[in-house]
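Just curious. Protein, please.
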Amino acid sequence: MLTLLSKYSQVNGGDVEHDQDAHDQKFGHFESLIHIVQIEAENQRRVNKEMKEKNALITKELETYKERV
């Protein structure tokens, strides 16, 4: 996790206090979103693989049907 070295930063010539709790909360939200995207990507890969397998099976069945007709 990212930790700020100082509680204050220089902004426009003045000191501004960081809200570390707000920062940590936002960082946690980003981590959650990244995790959700990773899960969704894995689900998409799984579905794509299943569809390719089904397509290959149906194509083979169609070729077998055409040979009989």
About this structure: The chain has one helix and two strands. Strands lie at 8-11, 14-17.
